[in-house]
Amino acid sequence: MSVVYFTEEITPESLMRIYKTLGVDLKGKVAVKISSGEPGGHNFLKPELIAPLVKSLDGTIVECNTAYEGKRSNSKDHWKAIHDHGYGKIAPCDIMDEFGEFAIPVNTGTHLKQNFVGEHLKNYSSMLVLSHFKGHLMGGFGGALKNMSIGVASAHGKANIHGAGDVSAIWTADHDSFLESMAEADMSVMEHMGRENIVYINVANRLSVDCDCDSNPHEPEMADIGIFASVDPVAVDQASVDAVYASPDKGKAALIERMESRHGIHTVETAEKLGLGSRKYELKKI
Question: What domains appear along the chain, each with residue ranges and CATH number?
Fold first, then answer.
């Protein structure tokens, strides 16, 4: 059983505190994987919230270009989004697939044989997967597992995952196969980086049914929940999902419908079957 730490307080200080509670010292050059947020959207993690933690790690904020048409599908526009959203003011930033990609093996995948990730991933020794937990149009929800799979993948790699190994099927692949492919991509990143070199924090605020990749997301219909942290990506996502169901907020119905209608939990189920973590966890409030 894994441990997931939780705090209801969503502040720079509580984010620092929950990371320190994990007791993990991320070594070497640290990548901080966030979503830079599609221009027009406004729910992405704010620089002022994450700045102290990123600076304490001497971290580099990392992203990759998107596979859909938008203002982050090419590096020029993506750099503008990163700076317009204020990330360049708090830390070095890196679009990891700006100059290319490389393939890492998916050793026991059903759908994927390779996962194509940003070339610059090679430059980092450890990673903080710092995710805004919220809904998602296709995945049902986005948390640590999505941020580490789709988020670390190059634009081509994103198409490969969405298409369950066939980039031409990016929007037409069997849905559960797409969800399973995200878990397979997660496995490849964890094996490449080393599991001991990655930690996961989900910030459950601005809980829209839509992803930060949406340029016009729905306004949240439920209140913020808090911050979850673990060394187990399966447990941290499961805990975040469970907290939505357990919330007394009646507005949770919209997010639950989004998660269930897209079978979002299947990514977590698959990740557990692949041995990436446990859906059973102990929640420790700090």
Answer: 2-285 (3.40.50.11440)
